[in-house]
């Protein structure tokens, strides 16, 4: 068995993920995309942004022959709507998988930092049912413009301080899960690649496919490896 784990591509700010998946997807049995595949995605009932079509068409092609697992990140809303166009499993927050006997816990990871009250409240508001109902009434072009402004605000806030304790919170989360019997914990969101052995377990953060171009491979005969596409 061979698996791919990748996250935080923020398409279409970069088209690297399209080129990467086009070249690589046939090498894998299962492809896990751990959130923020898109810079912004909203699952309309009968509309898709034209600038998403290139990636969605590729995902549709991949889903015909490979198992595809997509996690909803903090940049994606009503992400299950993508299943209208592609065959995939869509995960809202957490997933536990058995991979060749390894108990693997996976998540995008943006809800793990319990101390970041502002972010949790803001995220909860944006993803609440009333807000999503209101969003659905907005013209698509207006929603896209608002999403760009919100994204730029968030990025400025992140750059103005250390990454809100999220990296430490992710490590603590992984330690708890490993102590409770997980073999591997794989997270994303922070854009910081991590490959850390903890006792007999392993904590991995996939980093991002926007600046670091990092990803994780698992192969039955070799185990888990953190890689960078621009190094190959």
From TrEMBL:
GO terms for molecular function: metal ion binding; UDP-2,3-diacylglucosamine hydrolase activity. Keywords: Cell inner membrane, Cell membrane, Hydrolase, Manganese, Membrane, Metal-binding. One of its GO terms (cellular component) is membrane. It comes from the Bacteria. It comes from Hippea maritima (strain ATCC 700847 / DSM 10411 / MH2). Residues 1-193 form the Calcineurin-like phosphoesterase domain. PANTHER family: UDP-2,3-DIACYLGLUCOSAMINE HYDROLASE, UDP-2,3-DIACYLGLUCOSAMINE HYDROLASE-RELATED. Gene3D superfamilies: 3.60.21.10. This is Metallophosphoesterase. CDD domains: MPP_YbbF-LpxH (cd07398). GO terms for biological process: lipid A biosynthetic process. Transmembrane segments: none annotated. InterPro entries: Calcineurin-like_PHP, LpxH-like, Metallo-depent_PP-like.
């Amino acid at each position: 068995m061979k698996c791919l784990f990748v996250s935080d591509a923020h398409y279409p700010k970069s088209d690297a993920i399209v080129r990467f998946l086009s070249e690589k997807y046939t090498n894998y049995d299962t492809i896990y995309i751990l959130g923020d595949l898109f810079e912004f995605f909203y699952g309309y009932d009968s509309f898709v942004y034209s600038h998403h079509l290139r990636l969605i068409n590729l995902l549709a092609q991949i889903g015909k022959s490979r198992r595809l697992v997509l996690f909803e990140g903090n940049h994606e809303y009503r992400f299950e709507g993508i299943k209208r166009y592609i065959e995939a499993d869509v995960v809202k927050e957490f997933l536990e998988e058995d991979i060749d006997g390894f108990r693997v816990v996976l998540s995008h990871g943006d809800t793990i930092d319990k101390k970041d009250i502002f972010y949790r409240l803001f995220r909860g508001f944006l993803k609440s049912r009333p807000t999503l109902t209101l969003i659905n009434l907005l013209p698509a072009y207006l929603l896209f413009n608002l999403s760009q402004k919100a994204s730029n605000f968030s990025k400025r806030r992140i750059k103005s301080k250390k990454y809100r304790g999220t990296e430490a919170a992710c490590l603590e989360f992984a330690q708890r899960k490993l102590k409770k019997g997980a073999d591997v914990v794989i997270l994303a969101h922070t854009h910081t690649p991590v490959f850390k052995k903890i006792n007999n377990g392993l904590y991995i953060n996939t980093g991002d496919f926007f600046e670091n171009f990092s990803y994780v491979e698992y192969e039955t005969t070799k185990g888990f490896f953190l890689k960078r596409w621009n190094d190959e």
